[in-house]
Q: What sequence folds into this?
């Protein structure tokens, strides 16, 4: 029979409750720094009408991506370097994407030619909104061969 | 009348000279501002050529940064919409706002340099051995804190430099194995750099890191005294020239009268001898004031003649070409650009190798160096002792490599981070994509 003094039991309970209270408070303070609501731009957004974009590669600054057009086929490639997140530039004369921060070079299909980038540039899925805009879905990555052909306009 | 004028002049100019050793000793203990000084300081500790006073200069710079920084807080607004324009106001519409900002920036740049040079001095004089190893490690955390203060500081203007530095910096943190994504989310306060990110780095810059530095510096100073002052004194103590003296129990300069025996510092002074030391007041005080004045004047002159740059307002769509970090981070930028490894089908990003592993290993190596070091006590507190030639070369080669990488970053990287010789012209590029 193990006997524990009442005083010891009360002392341990007292100490645990003090430290427990501190720990819970610290936990709460830390939790406050993990946001519950994010006021961030949506992952799915319109980038303009198909006819807004000429042939070839066009930069869309407000969304940091390029539209790639060939006749009626559209692709969307990310302008965010896969190395450390700078915006790559389209050098049409070479032609390739080049990063101004650490010198990564990418082929027009997004694969890495040289430099520190560990992965190819991402391609995103495209669709057409009912009112005739191209819609990019950043949450859906696709293969570099993916192209979207908007259906021909029906004349009313 | 004449004597009254004279005494008034003395009061105004504070030409206090202690009339006895007792008065000189007590003056330290009785004054709040200098009570943490030892009563007596060995001659050796005053040497310009031994310590170069780099630690004191760093502390003075930190003081200047604290004062100019808290003044800047009245004008700076940590909001992504207004931060950039509040800096523009400081530069162009607030009276002497430019001076405050310039002095803050120059003190910051100098502090990175002096803290590092202080570290180099301690290494080259072998002043980190034995019981001083802990203080050496405290010093390394202070170097790291200085760099973090600089980093969080140049983010605040929210110009192009700031935005792309925070982008690259947080993406490096993201490369950390396992916890990277989680740290990235916490640093940003979300998935996209924005207001949450700016306010987090702002609080780090104006409160958390300076608060830590203040505590760590206090501990750093306290440890110097507990470890027996500058390392140069150890050699004096152990050298045969100085004969062991019998302790003088009746005479103690200890801080608190109740302390039994003699304090550490007094023991040191006893061994070195009364004649080889000076009273802290006025000699140490005068020296510190001199170092303060020179440092302050240097930052002020730099601030008057060289403006702190401000790039265009942050634009998340377009990265400046080329985008360069400040000089003290350019070697890291060079490393992350050059160290991506391709092993078969696996790729390890330069962000992890050059941004986390290499600097992490360098810091770890520095922290553990006192335990790898096998120098004899004769080398303690001596510049470039012959037996430490190899060690000093290892340190020097690492530093030279870092400086070379910085030079490549500053002078040889052009648009799209291509290599150009310093005398080559960069091609003209269209500014927009």
A:
């Amino acid at each position: 029979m193990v006997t524990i003094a009442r005083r010891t039991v009360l002392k341990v309970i007292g100490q645990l409750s003090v430290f427990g209270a501190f720990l819970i408070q610290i936990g709460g303070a830390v939790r406050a720094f993990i946001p519950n609501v994010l006021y961030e731009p949506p992952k799915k957004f319109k980038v303009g009408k198909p006819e807004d974009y000429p042939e070839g590669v066009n930069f869309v600054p407000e969304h940091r991506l390029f539209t790639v057009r060939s006749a009626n086929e559209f692709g969307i490639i990310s302008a965010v370097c896969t190395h450390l997140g700078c915006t790559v530039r389209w050098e049409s004369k070479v032609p390739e994407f080049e990063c101004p921060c650490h010198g990564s070079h990418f082929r027009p299909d997004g694969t890495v030619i040289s430099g520190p980038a560990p992965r190819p540039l991402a391609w995103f899925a495209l669709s057409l909104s009912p009112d005739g805009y191209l819609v990019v879905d950043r949450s859906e990555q696709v293969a570099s061969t993916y192209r979207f052909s908007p259906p021909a306009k029906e004349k009313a | 009348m004449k004597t009254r004028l004279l005494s008034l002049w003395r009061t105004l100019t504070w030409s206090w000279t202690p009339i006895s050793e007792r008065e000189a000793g007590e003056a330290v203990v009785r004054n709040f501002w200098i009570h943490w000084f030892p009563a007596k300081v060995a001659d050796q500790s005053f040497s310009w050529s031994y310590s170069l006073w780099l630690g004191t200069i760093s502390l003075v710079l930190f003081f200047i940064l604290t004062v100019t920084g808290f003044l800047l807080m009245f004008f700076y607004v940590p909001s992504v919409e207004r931060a950039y324009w509040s800096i523009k106001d400081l530069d162009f519409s607030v009276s002497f706002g430019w001076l405050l900002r310039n002095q803050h920036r120059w003190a910051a740049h100098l502090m990175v340099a002096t803290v590092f040079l202080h570290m180099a001095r301690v290494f080259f004089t072998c002043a980190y051995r034995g019981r001083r190893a802990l203080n050496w490690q405290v010093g390394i955390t202070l170097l790291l804190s200085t760099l973090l203060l600089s980093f969080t500081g140049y983010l605040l203007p929210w110009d192009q430099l700031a935005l792309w530095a925070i982008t690259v910096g947080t993406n490096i943190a993201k490369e950390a194995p396992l916890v990277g994504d989680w740290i990235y989310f916490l640093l940003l306060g979300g998935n996209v750099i924005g207001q949450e990110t700016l306010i987090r780095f702002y609080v780090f810059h104006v409160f958390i890191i300076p608060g830590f530095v203040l505590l760590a510096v206090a501990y750093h100073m306290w440890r110097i005294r507990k470890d027996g002052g500058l390392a140069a004194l150890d050699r004096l103590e152990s050298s045969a020239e100085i004969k062991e003296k019998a302790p003088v129990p009746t005479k103690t300069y200890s801080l608190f009268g109740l302390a039994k025996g003699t304090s550490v510092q007094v023991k040191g002074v006893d061994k070195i001898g009364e004649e080889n030391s000076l009273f802290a007041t006025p000699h140490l005080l005068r020296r510190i004031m001199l170092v303060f004045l020179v440092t302050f004047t240097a930052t002020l002159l730099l601030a008057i003649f060289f403006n702190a740059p401000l790039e265009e307002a942050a634009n998340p769509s377009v990265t400046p070409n080329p985008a360069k970090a400040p000089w003290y981070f350019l070697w890291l930028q060079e490393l992350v650009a050059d160290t991506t490894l391709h092993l078969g089908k696996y790729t390890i990003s330069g962000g992890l190798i050059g941004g986390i592993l290499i600097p992490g290993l360098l810091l770890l190596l520095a922290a553990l160096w006192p335990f790898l070091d096998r120098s004899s006590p004769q080398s303690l507190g001596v510049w470039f002792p012959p037996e430490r030639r190899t060690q000093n070369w290892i340190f020097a080669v690492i530093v030279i490599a870092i400086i070379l990488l910085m030079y490549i970053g500053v002078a040889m990287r052009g648009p799209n981070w291509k290599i150009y010789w310093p005398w080559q012209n960069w091609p003209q590029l269209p500014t927009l994509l």
Remarks:
- The CA atoms of residues 393 and 399 of chain B lie 10 Å apart.
- The first strand of chain B starts at residue 40 and ends at 42.
